[in-house]
Amino acid sequence: MKNIPELLAPAGDLEKLDTALHFGADAVYLGGEKFSLRAAAGNFSFKDLARAREVTRKYAKKLYLTLNAYLHQKDISAFRNFLKELMPLDMDAYIVSDPGALALIRDIDPDRPLHLSTQTNTTNAAAANFWREMGIHRINLARELSLDEIREIRTASPLELEVFIHGAMCVAYSGRCLLSAALTGRSANQGACTHPCRWKYALVEETRPDEYLPLEEDAGGTYIMNSRDLCLIDHIPELVSAGVNSLKIEGRMKSRYYLAVVTSVYRHALDTFLSSPQSYRCDPLWKKELEKVSHRPYGTGFLFSPENQGIQPQNSNYIRTHEFIGVLLENPDGQILVQVRNRFFPGDTLENVSPRMQRTAFHAASLRRHDGTALEVAQPNDLVLMDLPPSARPGDLLRREKPPAST
Ligand code: SF4
Q1: Domain ranges of the chain
Q2: Which of 43, 311, 319, 407 could form a cystine bridge with 31, CB 3.0-4.6 A?
Q3: 3-state DSSP call for residue 254?
Q4: Interval 65-116: pLDDT, tens
Q5: d(CA 243, ligand 1 centre) in Å
């Protein structure tokens, strides 16, 4: 049997790093304050990067730093200095896109493993092998490849291959879209996409500028440029047998709750496959669980049908059925308390979200502050002691089902 791929999760801050590790990521990718796409992804200060390195070492997990911005001439000197500053942190790899950045890293820090970002759009083995000669160790293949193409590249290239397994998709080649830069001045290629592909558009006649004629494909609105979110939970065996080395979850800007659920589902699926590949079947419960994070209708992207990837969803809305209630922390006395994110009341039905797909519903009871004072409501940022299920552990998350929207 092939090796089980690494599960690679995003971290937008130190809390999300903890969550990714708690819920089973083998490796985490994050960005520093400089030279990383995802301008608003809560990028890490140098101090935070050092802390992230410490934590991942402690748990023997890998840490990859994104340096995937396209450098302008004015950036070169600062980039060189940043590389020198980073060297003592000894990251497991840098993720790059720009050949100039690659050349500078090879000059200053020649032994650092290098991963090629999806922004470079590698779609064939000749390109993969070209990048290998340039010193790249791993390639994140373009999302636009089919499973057959991934297999062919695997056969023709010894490089480590990484593919996205879950998260948002673009209607453009990843990183090659100028819609946001053109309409808002915020460039997707600098990590600042405003997602205009998902906006609602209208038609305006030039002499009647205040009259908007809605463009409607149907009652759900207009979604000619909307892509489905990628979800490959049904296809773990195919990806393993294709020889993929790393399965990457998209979304440094996603919430801690999203990260916990998605990481735990894929961790569980991979572990289940590893323990019994012959009898492995995708459990419908895993898919139901992935429906409980904010997402747009799921699809398999280009994996099976590169000519007709069926990326138009039925409407442009996000699906949100559950809300993040809080995270469990341990206080110095060894008690577990809840750091509240959304308001809840005694008697509410909550669910404890633990690793290995453990989910435990319970009624919130006996809410109190650390000094023992009873609480009638738990508000965001409160630290609350309460009765929790016996399986609850620090690092677990609480959630609540949202009431159905009124019609
Ligand atoms: S506008 Fe849409 S297609 Fe373009 S980069 Fe942003 S998310 Fe992707």
Answers
A1: 6-171+228-299, 322-401
A2: 43
A3: coil
A4: 999 888 999 999 999 999 999 999 999 999 999 999 999 999 999 999 999 9
A5: 29
Closest atom of ligand 1 relative to the 179 alpha carbon = 1
Contact 9, 263 (CB under 8 A): yes
Contacts for 327 with CB less than 8 Å, ≥ 6 apart:
15, 19, 256, 338, 339, 341, 395, 396, 397, 398
CATH superfamily of this structure's domain 322-401:
Translation factors (2.40.30.10)
State the Cα–Cα distance between residues 255 and 353, nearest whole angstrom. 14
Same fold, 6-171+228-299 and 322-401: no
Q: Is residue 181 lining ligand 1, measured as CB closer than 6 Å? A: no
The phi and psi torsions of 139 (rounded to 5 degrees) equal -120, 130
Q: What is the pLDDT of residue 233?
A: 97
DSSP secondary structure code for residue 362 in this structure: E
Read off the pTM: 0.92
Measure 195 CA to ligand 1 centroid, in angstroms: 5
Residues forming beta bridges with residue 229, ordered by sequence position: 298
- CATH dotted code for 6-171+228-299: 3.20.20.70
Closest CA to 232 of 145, 318, 172: 145
Residue 62 exposure: Cα atoms within 13 Å on the Cβ side: 17
Phi-psi domain of 196 (left: phi exceeds 0; alpha: psi -120 through 50; beta: other): alpha
- Measuring CA to CA, which residue among 227, 209, 114 is closest to residue 167? 227
The rounded Å distance from CA 77 to ligand 1 centre is: 30
For residue 381, the Cα-to-chain-centroid distance in whole angstroms is 24
